[in-house]
Amino acid sequence: MKRLGILLSGRGSNFEAIADSVAAGRIDARIGIVISNRPEARGLEVARQRGLPAVAIPSRGLDREIYDRLLIEELHRHSVDLVCLAVFMRLLSAAFVREFPQRILNIHPSLLPAFPGLDAQHQALEHGVKISGCTVHFVDEFLDAGPIVLQAAVPVRDDDTVESLSARILEQEHRIYSEAIAIVLSGRYRIEGRRVLAEPPG
Question: Catalytic residue among 108, 122, 137, 174, which?
Protein backbone atom coordinates (compact mmCIF):
# COMPACT_ATOMS: atom_id res chain seq x y z
CA MET A 1 0.00 0.00 0.00
CA LYS A 2 1.23 3.49 -0.89
CA ARG A 3 2.42 5.67 1.97
CA LEU A 4 1.78 9.39 2.42
CA GLY A 5 4.06 11.84 4.16
CA ILE A 6 2.26 14.89 5.54
CA LEU A 7 4.15 18.14 6.16
CA LEU A 8 2.37 20.79 8.22
CA SER A 9 3.06 23.88 10.29
CA GLY A 10 -0.20 24.59 12.12
CA ARG A 11 -3.54 23.19 13.15
CA GLY A 12 -3.59 20.60 10.43
CA SER A 13 -7.21 20.75 9.25
CA ASN A 14 -6.25 19.67 5.73
CA PHE A 15 -4.27 16.80 7.26
CA GLU A 16 -7.34 15.78 9.27
CA ALA A 17 -9.47 15.77 6.11
CA ILE A 18 -6.87 13.56 4.39
CA ALA A 19 -6.73 11.23 7.40
CA ASP A 20 -10.55 10.97 7.40
CA SER A 21 -10.48 10.07 3.70
CA VAL A 22 -7.83 7.41 4.31
CA ALA A 23 -9.88 5.96 7.19
CA ALA A 24 -13.02 5.92 5.02
CA GLY A 25 -11.25 4.20 2.13
CA ARG A 26 -11.58 7.15 -0.26
CA ILE A 27 -7.77 7.25 -0.46
CA ASP A 28 -6.12 3.87 -1.00
CA ALA A 29 -3.04 4.56 1.09
CA ARG A 30 -1.80 4.87 4.63
CA ILE A 31 -0.22 7.84 6.35
CA GLY A 32 3.40 6.88 6.96
CA ILE A 33 4.54 9.98 8.84
CA VAL A 34 3.39 13.45 9.86
CA ILE A 35 6.17 16.03 10.17
CA SER A 36 6.05 19.62 11.38
CA ASN A 37 8.71 22.31 11.42
CA ARG A 38 7.00 23.73 14.52
CA PRO A 39 7.02 21.52 17.65
CA GLU A 40 3.92 23.32 19.00
CA ALA A 41 1.83 22.64 15.88
CA ARG A 42 -1.59 21.30 16.82
CA GLY A 43 -1.47 18.95 13.84
CA LEU A 44 1.21 16.85 15.55
CA GLU A 45 -1.01 16.27 18.56
CA VAL A 46 -3.95 15.43 16.30
CA ALA A 47 -1.79 12.86 14.49
CA ARG A 48 -0.68 11.26 17.75
CA GLN A 49 -4.28 11.08 18.97
CA ARG A 50 -5.08 9.17 15.78
CA GLY A 51 -2.23 6.76 16.45
CA LEU A 52 -0.12 8.03 13.58
CA PRO A 53 3.65 8.52 13.73
CA ALA A 54 4.37 12.23 14.14
CA VAL A 55 7.66 14.07 14.60
CA ALA A 56 8.79 17.65 14.94
CA ILE A 57 11.90 18.70 13.05
CA PRO A 58 12.34 22.32 14.15
CA SER A 59 13.45 24.60 11.34
CA ARG A 60 14.34 27.71 13.30
CA GLY A 61 17.90 28.82 12.57
CA LEU A 62 18.64 26.08 10.06
CA ASP A 63 19.82 26.66 6.50
CA ARG A 64 17.15 25.56 4.03
CA GLU A 65 19.33 22.92 2.34
CA ILE A 66 20.38 21.43 5.67
CA TYR A 67 16.81 21.38 6.94
CA ASP A 68 15.49 19.81 3.76
CA ARG A 69 18.07 17.02 4.00
CA LEU A 70 16.67 16.20 7.45
CA LEU A 71 13.16 16.12 5.97
CA ILE A 72 14.27 13.89 3.10
CA GLU A 73 15.93 11.44 5.49
CA GLU A 74 12.81 11.20 7.65
CA LEU A 75 10.50 10.72 4.67
CA HIS A 76 12.71 7.98 3.24
CA ARG A 77 12.92 6.33 6.65
CA HIS A 78 9.15 5.88 6.46
CA SER A 79 9.17 4.81 2.77
CA VAL A 80 6.92 7.68 1.68
CA ASP A 81 5.56 7.51 -1.87
CA LEU A 82 3.75 10.87 -2.00
CA VAL A 83 4.49 14.03 -0.02
CA CYS A 84 1.46 16.18 0.84
CA LEU A 85 1.96 19.75 2.04
CA ALA A 86 -0.85 20.62 4.44
CA VAL A 87 -0.08 24.31 5.02
CA PHE A 88 3.66 23.82 5.43
CA MET A 89 5.01 27.32 5.92
CA ARG A 90 8.42 26.83 4.36
CA LEU A 91 9.71 27.07 0.82
CA LEU A 92 11.22 23.76 -0.23
CA SER A 93 14.64 23.70 -1.87
CA ALA A 94 15.26 22.55 -5.42
CA ALA A 95 17.13 19.57 -3.97
CA PHE A 96 14.02 18.48 -2.06
CA VAL A 97 11.82 18.80 -5.15
CA ARG A 98 14.29 16.76 -7.22
CA GLU A 99 14.25 14.04 -4.57
CA PHE A 100 10.49 13.52 -5.08
CA PRO A 101 9.81 14.41 -8.73
CA GLN A 102 6.08 14.81 -9.38
CA ARG A 103 5.50 13.23 -5.98
CA ILE A 104 4.82 16.40 -3.96
CA LEU A 105 1.35 17.95 -3.78
CA ASN A 106 0.32 21.29 -2.33
CA ILE A 107 -3.02 22.96 -1.65
CA HIS A 108 -3.25 26.72 -2.18
CA PRO A 109 -6.20 28.98 -1.29
CA SER A 110 -6.67 30.66 -4.66
CA LEU A 111 -7.34 29.76 -8.26
CA LEU A 112 -3.74 29.66 -9.41
CA PRO A 113 -2.01 31.26 -11.18
CA ALA A 114 -3.91 34.11 -9.49
CA PHE A 115 -2.62 35.19 -6.08
CA PRO A 116 0.36 32.94 -5.36
CA GLY A 117 2.30 33.21 -2.12
CA LEU A 118 1.05 34.37 1.26
CA ASP A 119 -2.32 35.92 2.14
CA ALA A 120 -4.06 34.77 -1.03
CA GLN A 121 -7.52 35.43 0.41
CA HIS A 122 -6.53 38.99 1.33
CA GLN A 123 -5.10 39.46 -2.18
CA ALA A 124 -8.39 38.26 -3.69
CA LEU A 125 -10.43 40.77 -1.66
CA GLU A 126 -7.98 43.59 -2.38
CA HIS A 127 -8.27 42.93 -6.12
CA GLY A 128 -12.06 42.79 -6.01
CA VAL A 129 -12.38 39.43 -7.76
CA LYS A 130 -15.84 37.88 -7.87
CA ILE A 131 -14.62 34.27 -7.76
CA SER A 132 -11.76 32.79 -5.77
CA GLY A 133 -11.18 29.22 -4.69
CA CYS A 134 -8.41 26.69 -4.18
CA THR A 135 -5.93 24.67 -6.19
CA VAL A 136 -4.14 21.35 -5.71
CA HIS A 137 -0.95 21.30 -7.72
CA PHE A 138 2.30 19.44 -8.09
CA VAL A 139 5.21 21.23 -6.46
CA ASP A 140 8.08 22.27 -8.68
CA GLU A 141 11.06 24.53 -8.01
CA PHE A 142 8.98 27.71 -8.32
CA LEU A 143 6.46 29.18 -5.88
CA ASP A 144 2.91 27.85 -6.41
CA ALA A 145 3.70 27.20 -10.06
CA GLY A 146 3.55 23.43 -10.66
CA PRO A 147 1.01 21.61 -12.86
CA ILE A 148 -2.56 21.88 -11.56
CA VAL A 149 -4.38 18.67 -10.59
CA LEU A 150 -7.73 20.04 -9.35
CA GLN A 151 -9.40 23.36 -8.60
CA ALA A 152 -12.62 24.44 -6.92
CA ALA A 153 -14.30 27.82 -7.35
CA VAL A 154 -15.72 29.81 -4.43
CA PRO A 155 -17.83 32.93 -5.05
CA VAL A 156 -16.67 36.08 -3.28
CA ARG A 157 -19.50 37.87 -1.50
CA ASP A 158 -19.75 41.61 -1.13
CA ASP A 159 -19.70 41.34 2.65
CA ASP A 160 -16.82 38.85 2.82
CA THR A 161 -13.93 39.32 5.19
CA VAL A 162 -10.64 37.45 4.96
CA GLU A 163 -11.96 35.14 7.69
CA SER A 164 -15.31 34.37 6.07
CA LEU A 165 -13.80 33.84 2.62
CA SER A 166 -11.03 31.69 4.06
CA ALA A 167 -13.56 29.49 5.86
CA ARG A 168 -15.54 28.78 2.68
CA ILE A 169 -12.40 28.13 0.67
CA LEU A 170 -11.18 25.75 3.38
CA GLU A 171 -14.31 23.63 3.01
CA GLN A 172 -13.43 23.12 -0.65
CA GLU A 173 -9.76 22.50 0.18
CA HIS A 174 -10.79 19.60 2.40
CA ARG A 175 -12.84 18.11 -0.43
CA ILE A 176 -10.54 18.45 -3.43
CA TYR A 177 -7.23 17.62 -1.70
CA SER A 178 -8.36 14.06 -1.02
CA GLU A 179 -9.72 13.76 -4.56
CA ALA A 180 -6.42 14.93 -6.02
CA ILE A 181 -4.39 12.55 -3.86
CA ALA A 182 -6.58 9.65 -5.01
CA ILE A 183 -6.03 10.64 -8.67
CA VAL A 184 -2.26 10.86 -8.29
CA LEU A 185 -1.98 7.59 -6.35
CA SER A 186 -4.07 5.81 -8.99
CA GLY A 187 -1.55 6.76 -11.66
CA ARG A 188 -4.42 7.35 -14.08
CA TYR A 189 -3.22 10.70 -15.35
CA ARG A 190 -0.52 12.14 -17.54
CA ILE A 191 1.21 15.50 -17.62
CA GLU A 192 1.45 17.31 -20.93
CA GLY A 193 3.35 20.56 -20.55
CA ARG A 194 1.62 22.17 -17.60
CA ARG A 195 -1.64 20.21 -18.01
CA VAL A 196 -2.59 17.28 -15.81
CA LEU A 197 -4.93 15.10 -17.85
CA ALA A 198 -6.98 12.42 -16.14
CA GLU A 199 -7.19 9.07 -17.89
CA PRO A 200 -10.29 6.86 -17.62
CA PRO A 201 -9.97 3.65 -15.57
CA GLY A 202 -9.42 0.39 -17.35
Answer: 108
